[in-house]
């Protein structure tokens, strides 16, 4: 099982998703003899999971049922253990598109954090690309490396425990793209440029505060980067529902039989909408 390669059958050692509903799911490490407790009862790994097809409907001990899904970067993002604040799919999709990531790309990332973006990058660059990710905090770096092994992507990623602002990414002249998610990204712009290939590439910096963006843009200009742009992604999800509208009675004498209401699909706006997450600043390294 791997986050970047699909498997049909659930095997021991896999990290699967037990799906109870859109707002209720959990990652499970499949192991012979193990059990997972849900509100619908117990799932026995040996009899209920191992050897079954991903997507199967599994009946729990109390008679309720769940689906067991193959893990993806999107499902990992909503289920991962939070060691830091993470990036979510709305921003991740924009980042991977604007950095022009594709199979074979070499990417440098700092910091690794909880690995939400890292897994999405790995799927984009597989099977022949490589991610060099840097994490300042030793325990977080070690945990991220452990998760990459469990998820079957260790061959695609190198984790370094160091200060990117002082020591850089540990590579020179190899990266097609660089991503920065650190408190002082302007201090790492020079290292980002050094890590990138001579033929140019794209860099992205994520910052929650506009003052950070201003300093980072100044650093991009000082280091000769071009095509600077800053954006923020705001998502508004519409709720699709069915409404029933009665037909008007145009019979003046009132003798017409009552009409069956017409069912229509419509959408309603959410009462609350997630707002600002952070600013995404992109820049291009000119070809040298």
From TrEMBL:
**One Pfam match:** GCD14
MF (Gene Ontology)? tRNA (adenine(58)-N1)-methyltransferase activity
Residues in tRNA (adenine(58)-N(1))-methyltransferase catalytic subunit TRM61 C-terminal domain copies: 64-250
Sites where the protein binds S-adenosyl-L-methionine? 114-117, 135, 163, 181
- What are the TM regions of this chain, as residue ranges? none
One GO cellular component, as annotated = tRNA (m1A) methyltransferase complex
Question: Could you state one GO biological process linked to this protein?
Answer: tRNA methylation
InterPro entries assigned to the protein according to its UniProt record, in alphabetical order:
SAM-dependent_MTases_sf, TRM61_C, tRNA_MeTrfase_Gcd14
Show which residues constitute the signal peptide: none
Specify the superkingdom: Eukaryota
Task: Quote the PANTHER family the UniProt record gives.
Answer: TRNA (ADENINE(58)-N(1))-METHYLTRANSFERASE, TRNA (ADENINE(58)-N(1))-METHYLTRANSFERASE CATALYTIC SUBUNIT TRMT61A
Task: Give the family per the record.
Answer: Belongs to the class I-like SAM-binding methyltransferase superfamily. TRM61 family.
What is the protein's quaternary organization? Heterotetramer; composed of two copies of TRMT6 and two copies of TRMT61A.
Reported function = Catalytic subunit of tRNA (adenine-N(1)-)-methyltransferase, which catalyzes the formation of N(1)-methyladenine at position 58 (m1A58) in initiator methionyl-tRNA. Catalytic subunit of mRNA N(1)-methyltransferase complex, which mediates methylation of adenosine residues at the N(1) position of a small subset of mRNAs: N(1) methylation takes place in tRNA T-loop-like structures of mRNAs and is only present at low stoichiometries.
What name does UniProt use for this protein?
Answer: tRNA (adenine(58)-N(1))-methyltransferase catalytic subunit TRMT61A
